[in-house]
Amino acid sequence: MDEQKYSISRWEEPDRIYKDLSNLTSNPIWEINEDYHNKVLDHFKYKCQKSYDIYMEAKNYIPGGVQHNLAFNYPFPIAIEKAEGAYMYDVDGNRYIDFLQAGGPTVLGSNFKPVREEVIKLLESCGPVTGLLHEAELLLAKEINKHMPAVEMFRMLGSGTEAVMASLRIARIATKNDRIIKIGGAYHGWSDQMVYGLKIPGSRQFLESHGIPSKCYSLTDEVRPNDIKMLDKMLWFNKMRGGTAAVILEPLGPESGTRPISKSYNESVRALCNKYGALMIFDEVVTGFRVGLSGAQGYFDIIPDLTIFGKVVAGGYPAAGGVGGKKEYAGLMAAGVATGKHKAYVGGTLAANPLSSYAGYLAIKEIERTNACVKAGQAGERLTEGLKALITKYGLPYVVYCQGSIVHLECTGAMSFDYSSFNIAKSLIGILKNKKMVYQRKDAMERMGAAYMSQGIVTLAGSRLYTSLADTDEVIDDALARFETVFSNVVKTDKGIKTK
Ligand SMILES: Cc1ncc(COP(=O)(O)O)c(C=O)c1O
Asked: What is residue 66's predicted lDDT score, i.e. its pLDDT?
């Protein structure tokens, strides 16, 4: 039998998932009962006092009291003091099983010692930054190329957002076309052109693009996830208006697979990009070195024109981002100050600093040595199976599925709506009609997230869980017992129903 190389041991076609999600959102919300909710609030009040004090003071100095989007947890954010392996510890001494994993980068588990020790040696010799070339940059680029041959060249940048910005410039130079197509609901960072159709497909500029002049996203289009016909039509339509420079996509489906795709989808997108002369940009910020060492492109056997990196590429250390691909495209990025003509300008004071480059290189080596992607995937699948059993036991309408080490637990379906349409008015009407229900579902999702937290489990916004090498069977089984306590306190409410 072939040795397992990827975190995903079996691919679940999305039909069952979409059917179950549709059932979830057409029924009232099921969430923790009032008594239990009060107990959760008491937990935060009495056991998280120091976090609360830090947060209250931070509100005077930091907008909203938190710097990081993922840290905005109901009823207030928890301040973390220590992170190690599968666990985080807050300033009040509470321990949490960490399924946030910093939003994905720590596939080896938090603060992985073998990487940390080598990083410290580097810091002691040259510090985190010099502004000049360091051999670690070469080591990292070669290591990526070893696992992903389609990434012939790699340029490290400060974040996934920056890497996406660079890739769009390259695509426009390479194709001489301007339009960019993204898949509705996908997250490709927060640059002006990409804050379009965020989270909810078909939401276009209506939800998140405050402060962005409409001209900035006038060349961005979105299509319905997993809908190859709509993409074909959009590419055809764009041909009439100047052509498409690139189709950018998350290989597991928008929002790290929150909107799953069929296994053949990426291949069909590749074929359409070839047909219409658009570049295919694989955003592997989440999937690179998580789905497998060769990323989602290895798993799906796809050769993208450009690949976006982030998160694991710096081993969980800061300044994680980069773009790579075929030489003919990656070579279109300007290098140094004496730039050639007609190249994409990229930069960043801290981009490709020795610390990030070396940490990324070490982490990839350690992922290979420990078989971390596969082990994290096994943990994710064990968690998923356990959650499914609990959902059945308690008769809940919840939906759980995973792509290996990325587990989706949908208790309210707040993220499951879709207003994709060629017709802008139709999208807007859909959003307005469902607004109240979506907010009720979002609030309930936050209360569920708080309940997990009070049981010592940190999730990403109450609906996504990343697993890592550190998640042994014992960790997962302990987590399942804690989920059971929450699920045993869930009741059907009369909220979350569509208004006619
Ligand atoms: C798929 C994807 N692309 C791009 C980004 C942006 O990366 P960064 O947060 O490093 O800017 C993210 C971040 O979560 C992401 O998940």
From this structure: 86
pLDDT, one tens digit per residue, over 59-78 is 999 998 888 887 778 999 99
pTM: 0.96
Query: pLDDT tens digits, residue range 395-426?
Result: 999 999 999 999 999 999 988 999 999 999 99
Q: What is the DSSP letter of 463?
A: T
Residue 458: beta bridge partners? 98
346 and 408 share one domain: no
| Distance of alpha carbon 141 from alpha carbon 147, whole angstroms | 10
In terms of domains, do 105 and 123 share one?
Answer: no
Residue 432: left if φ>0, alpha if ψ -120 to 50, beta else—which one? alpha
Q: Is 283 near ligand 1, meaning CB less than 6 Å away?
A: yes
pLDDT of residue 234: 98
Residue 419 C-alpha to ligand 1 middle, in angstroms? 23
The pick from 261, 306, 308, 311 for probing ligand 1's pocket by mutation, whose C-beta has the most ligand atoms within 8 angstroms, reads 311
Number of domains in the chain: 2
pLDDT of residue 500: 52
The residue contributing the CA closest to ligand 1 atom 8 is: 160
- Looking at the CA of residue 284, tell me the nearest atom of ligand 1: 1
Q: At 140, which CATH number?
A: 3.40.640.10
Round to whole Å and give the CA distance between 440 and 246.
Answer: 36
Q: Are 393 and 438 in a shared domain?
A: yes
Determine the Cα–Cα distance for residues 453 and 459; give it in Å rounded to an integer.
8
Backbone angles phi, psi at 90, to 5 degrees: -90, 175
Measure CA 145 to chain center: 23
Domain end call among 369, 394, 419: 369
Residue range of the domain that includes 308? 114-369
**What does the pLDDT read at residue 338?**
56
* 334 and 443 together in one domain: no
What is the average per-residue pLDDT within 286-308?
Answer: 98
Can you tell me which residue has the tokens 């980068």?
Answer: 105
Considering only CA atoms, which residue is closest to atom 3 of ligand 1? 188
What's the confidence (pLDDT) of residue 335? Answer: 80
* R_g of the chain, CA atoms, integer Å: 22
The widest CA-to-CA distance across the chain, in whole angstroms, is 67
